[in-house]
From TrEMBL:
<keyword id="KW-0862">Zinc</keyword>
<dbReference type="InterPro" id="IPR013785">
    <property type="entry name" value="Aldolase_TIM"/>
</dbReference>
<feature type="binding site">
    <location>
        <position position="176"/>
    </location>
    <ligand>
        <name>dihydroxyacetone phosphate</name>
    </ligand>
</feature>
<feature type="binding site">
    <location>
        <position position="82"/>
    </location>
    <ligand>
        <name>Zn(2+) 1</name>
    </ligand>
</feature>
<keyword id="KW-0456">Lyase</keyword>
<dbReference type="GO" id="GO:0005975">
    <property type="term" value="P:carbohydrate metabolic process"/>
</dbReference>
<feature type="binding site">
    <location>
        <position position="103"/>
    </location>
    <ligand>
        <name>Zn(2+) 2</name>
    </ligand>
</feature>
<dbReference type="Pfam" id="PF01116">
    <property type="entry name" value="F_bP_aldolase"/>
</dbReference>
<dbReference type="InterPro" id="IPR050246">
    <property type="entry name" value="Class_II_FBP_aldolase"/>
</dbReference>
<keyword id="KW-0479">Metal-binding</keyword>
<dbReference type="GO" id="GO:0008270">
    <property type="term" value="F:zinc ion binding"/>
</dbReference>
<protein>
    <submittedName>
        <fullName>Ketose-bisphosphate aldolase</fullName>
        <ecNumber>4.1.2.40</ecNumber>
    </submittedName>
</protein>
<feature type="active site" description="Proton donor">
    <location>
        <position position="81"/>
    </location>
</feature>
<dbReference type="InterPro" id="IPR000771">
    <property type="entry name" value="FBA_II"/>
</dbReference>
<feature type="binding site">
    <location>
        <position position="203"/>
    </location>
    <ligand>
        <name>Zn(2+) 1</name>
    </ligand>
</feature>
<feature type="binding site">
    <location>
        <begin position="204"/>
        <end position="206"/>
    </location>
    <ligand>
        <name>dihydroxyacetone phosphate</name>
    </ligand>
</feature>
<dbReference type="GO" id="GO:0009025">
    <property type="term" value="F:tagatose-bisphosphate aldolase activity"/>
</dbReference>
Amino acid sequence: NENRIQEMIKRAYHEHWAIGQFNISNLETMMGVISAAEEKRSPVLLGISNGTIRHLGYSYIEGLVRTAEKVADIPLWFHLDHGKDFETVKNCVNIGFKSVMIDTSTLPLKENIEQVIPVVHFCKSHGIGVEAQIGVTWDEETGDESQEKTNPEEVKIFVESTDIDYLAFSFGNTPGRLSGYSNPDIKLLKEIADKSQVPIVMHGGTSVPDPDIMISISMGVSKINIDTLLRRAITDTFLSLYPNEASAPGDPRIAFKAMRNEIAERVGNRMELFGSAGRA
Ligand code: G3H
């Protein structure tokens, strides 16, 4: 049943393509992502970060969930990105999210597993897809660069003892990087993919070079998270439309629309690269 994200990701895993998770921060950014997905006939995950939960609050986010389900004519799911605790997971599931990440990756392995297990039980009993992480990546919100690449020896034990649906890990990716490229360790990625036995998730998708993305997908990456790409699209749009007050558009909707189009363009381009275009 491909109505469930778990099944769609398994399908991507077996067919060697990846579903994009694009993080949105309001109605307009959501519209840009949905229009790209519709144009490319691509299934899509709409990511909500802790920052967006703080920015919008659960009630407005619930409005986005209902609206998206009503208007979109492609398969889409809301996903909690880097959920910090069980409470946040429950709040998101209550407002209609179908996929969540519990990220307690900064804890030692045993404690990480202990935090993930109850979340997995809850999610399985509600039919929700669940992702967790081993290894620490650059902290997207604080900019903390201290990384600890995933130890491949811990992968099997983590996946087996938690029973998660998809696995996030650290292999030199740098989520939230505003410019330039990261230096992904593809050898490590392959080792992790071979040991994981579940689809794997690439965080920091914006700054991974295209050839590395392609090769990662062929090795088992089936979900790719993208946030900064949209942020850059927004910044570029506003900088070009508002170079100074004299030439600023009087009607802000001109800028919002240009921003939506720019997001749709860049997201659509990623859907082509990930091979999710034409799968809906
Ligand atoms: O979970 C979100 C992603 O890791 C975002 O990474 O901002 O580098 O695209 P990015």
